Structures are given as C-alpha cells and as structure tokens.
Amino acid sequence: MTEKKQIHLAAHFPGVNSTTVWTDPRSRSQIDFSSFEQLARTAERGKFDFFFLAEGLRLREHKGLIHDLDVVGRPESITVLNALAAVTERLGLAATVNATFNEPYELARRLATLDHLSGGRAAWNVVTSSDAFTGENFRRGGYLDRADRYTRAAEFVDTARELWDSWTPDGAPRPVSHDGRHFSVRGEFTVPRSPQGHPVVIQAGDSDEGREFAAASADVIFTRHGTLEAGRVFYADVKARLAAYGREPSDLKIMPGVTFVLGDTAADAQERAAEIRRQQVSPQNAILALEQIWGRDLSAYDPDGPLPDIDPDPESELVQGRVKIADPFAIAAKWRALAEAKGLSIRQTVIETTTRQSFVGTPQAVADELDEFVQTGAADGFILVPHLTPGGLDEFVDQVVPLLQERGAFRTEYTGTTLRSHLGLAEPVWKG
C-alpha cells in the first residue's frame, strides 16, 4: 500500500490587508503582541509547520493619503518572532524580509539569532522590490532596476548561506570572503552554526523568474493558484526545474496561500462565504480596488453601478506602495467582459475577481479537498489566511485538523524539534 503524502500547514497572520474583516467585533489589534501570540498558539495546538508574517517597509498611499489599513502600524517581523519563540515550543517562525533594502551580513545575523533562540525554527521569506516609493525610506532609494531584483536576491541568499556556513559544525569560526556583483563581505560572522544548519528559505512569487529562483534557492515556495488543475500545472512546472540545480522534487515544498470557510452544510458554508466576501469588499473597498486598476479617481462612481467606460491610466501614481499592475488595459477588458456577461456591478465584479483560492464547505468536504490537492500533485500543503485576526484559525484546528489526522494525512504530534524536520527537509550539508 502506498504511503499517504503528508500535508504541510502554516498559518499566515493577516495583518494589513483586505482579507481580515476588520468590522467584525471579534477582530483585534494587528500590532498588540497578544494577537500574534493567540494565533501562534492556535497554530501550534494544531501541529502546524510554521507561523508566517508579512512585511511592509512603507505605509501605502492612495490618492496622497495613507492607506486606511496601514495607519495602525506595521511592526517588524523578526522582532515579533523572537518574542513568539519564548511562548511556543515547536512551531516554525517565518519572517518576510526584503532582499532589496537589506544587507546580507546584518540579516543573516538576525535570522541566525532567531534560529538559536527558537531551537532551530526560523525561516526567511525572501521578497524583492524595485519600488522607488518604498526605496525613499532607504539610503540607496529606488535605485534597483526591476530586471536586477532577482539577481540581487539570489546573490543575497548565497551570501547569507556562506555566512551561516562560516562556522564549522563543531563550533570553529572561519573568515568570510565574498566578492560579487552586489555584495562584498570580508570578516568573521558572529553567530555559530544554528540548530538546523540554515534557517529555512521561503520564496513568494509566481512569475517565471520567481519560479526559477525558487527552484535554485528556496526550500518552500509561497504561491497562489485558483483551481486544482492550475495547481497541478504550476506544481509540475516548478518541480521539473529542480533537476537542473541538482535537487530532488522533495527538496522544495509548494504551499499556496488559501482561505477557508466552514459550515454545518454546503449551503451554509456558501452563504457564510458570500457574506464574508461582502464584508471584505465594502462599497469603499470596491472603489479602491477599481482605482488601483484604472489609476484614476473613481470616487464619483456608484459601487452598485456599472464599471467605468473610460480606459485606465498606465502612468498613474494614484496608488503608491502596492505592486504595480503590469497590464491594466487587459485586466479592465477582462473585468468589463465578465461584468457584461453576468450583469455585475462594480462591487460584484471586484468580489468575483479578487477572491483568493478558498476551500468552502463542511469540515469533511474541506478536509477531502485539501487532501486531494496534495495527493494528486497540486500542492505539498497550504498557508492558511483566516478572515479574522487573531481567532480565525480556531475552527479549522478544532474541526478540520482532526479529520486530516484520522485519514493519516497530517501529523498527530510533532516528531522533530526543528522547522526542517517538520517540513521533511534535510539539514544543509556543511560546505567546508
């Protein structure tokens, strides 16, 4: 009998986005430590692989004003995770840190410190930016050409690994000498080799260059795909790239970010999901989403009316601090065609087009679907993004996790102490 593939699960702290229903009275602070602690403890109770934090290096702006969700602040990820290391025992701790506006020595040191303090549970989600708006907060500004962001990130990861490898496994430090296009590092690293060898490296991105970067350098890829078939295509494509770098398919875990909605019946779950989407996409949020695509002030439009008949402005700087839309004309055309075919308003169109992959149904149906994705090669696991902060993970842990455990697809207890052991990743071979 073929052994069942094990599902990997992680919990994303939603933070400053439109997934969280902030109008719900159960939603709490996105900066108070108690919120982070509650979600992390729930994830550990559910035997999750890791807890995942996003990053923001500048408050976003919309029409020259600070974005509403950013005004309460965006705390620094590694600091939060160091605190969580003291109130958790096995849960992995993943920080999103930008490879464009940091330096290898300093970041490698902070991540190695977290790995030691947590007993080998640290992870780094590598992201990049060519955004001059964000760069204004840094000495070099937005100097980096978009085409160079992955070359810098790849050298950044390689340099960090050289630093992590500069101490022998038996505790002897050695000098580091790195001379590359983006970095020159000469000196001695201050932190001994960590309990899991290197912190786990996560990469977020679906572009071709992002996939190649993940195949070459990452342990986990954080992605998104909307259907089972799309997931299988992505999974096969990325796994096939690994051989060129001397890696096995099991060396890289593919974990899409997803949401979930549970109900006593399928109809109940669908009704709850629809109501959650209406709460997430308020009339105001619908216009904000439209303005991000069109690059125009559309405040005069009725959210319950038709889409604008004007074209987007591709040169607009109406929205700052968000990923720039590559082809707003194509998206506008797609939205118009959908709205016309289904008779949708602005708000209804935004609801239909901006939904992240969600698993909606009874706990049994959701467990079945999650398992199908993993067993049929569409994912290795999932990063769950609950719609309530911080209590939105509780019902999944209480109702879905036991069903996955019963079918032998998910652990009942942690069998190791490090994040690498949770993910089934080998400790990196020391490069002496």
From TrEMBL:
<keyword id="KW-0503">Monooxygenase</keyword>
<comment type="similarity">
    <text>Belongs to the NtaA/SnaA/DszA monooxygenase family.</text>
</comment>
<dbReference type="GO" id="GO:0016705">
    <property type="term" value="F:oxidoreductase activity, acting on paired donors, with incorporation or reduction of molecular oxygen"/>
</dbReference>
<feature type="domain" description="Luciferase-like">
    <location>
        <begin position="28"/>
        <end position="378"/>
    </location>
</feature>
<keyword id="KW-0285">Flavoprotein</keyword>
<dbReference type="InterPro" id="IPR011251">
    <property type="entry name" value="Luciferase-like_dom"/>
</dbReference>
<feature type="binding site">
    <location>
        <position position="150"/>
    </location>
    <ligand>
        <name>FMN</name>
    </ligand>
</feature>
<protein>
    <submittedName>
        <fullName>NtaA/DmoA family FMN-dependent monooxygenase</fullName>
        <ecNumber>1.14.-.-</ecNumber>
    </submittedName>
</protein>
<dbReference type="InterPro" id="IPR036661">
    <property type="entry name" value="Luciferase-like_sf"/>
</dbReference>
<feature type="binding site">
    <location>
        <position position="96"/>
    </location>
    <ligand>
        <name>FMN</name>
    </ligand>
</feature>
<keyword id="KW-0560">Oxidoreductase</keyword>
<dbReference type="InterPro" id="IPR051260">
    <property type="entry name" value="Diverse_substr_monoxygenases"/>
</dbReference>
<dbReference type="GO" id="GO:0004497">
    <property type="term" value="F:monooxygenase activity"/>
</dbReference>
<keyword id="KW-0288">FMN</keyword>
<dbReference type="Pfam" id="PF00296">
    <property type="entry name" value="Bac_luciferase"/>
</dbReference>
<feature type="binding site">
    <location>
        <position position="207"/>
    </location>
    <ligand>
        <name>FMN</name>
    </ligand>
</feature>
<dbReference type="InterPro" id="IPR016215">
    <property type="entry name" value="NTA_MOA"/>
</dbReference>
